[in-house]
What does this fold into?
Amino acid sequence: MNSQILDVINPKKNIGIKNWNIVNDDVMGGISTSTMSLNKEKNLLFKGNLSLENNGGFASSRLSLEKNILNGVKFFKIKFKGDGNTYKLRFRQNNRRASYSHDFKSSKDEWIEVDLRVEDFKATWRGYSYSDYPALEPKEVISMGLQISDKQEGDFILEIEYIKAVF
It folds into this structure.
């Protein structure tokens, strides 16, 4: 059985590099910072500083996606290089208050490729998990995001070569 693959983020093909929105803890009084940019290798960089001051504690970015584009996806394949921190891949649906999140751990300056299965994404809202919440419905996804949180204070950098949806 052959899988179909959709590039969700692939900067070398100019896919998923524009229109990222930064959403940091400053929406609640925190002072964390983050940016999205391209480096000279044409990889996406999510970087900044996570601060716990003023009840802060998260930095994130979001990219709008066309509804139904992920209909039938089985898992997401991510190739990244990080700093040793744990990051989250997150999805939002237009009909749900909670987001769906899956952690992935980086190793300092080492390229890693991971597969994140759709059924392993957990519903979260404002840092709380909801085990009794309905499962992620990929056909309803309207945005994707990257986030760092969980008291990982300090400078961070995550380099993304690609994020692919595998059907």
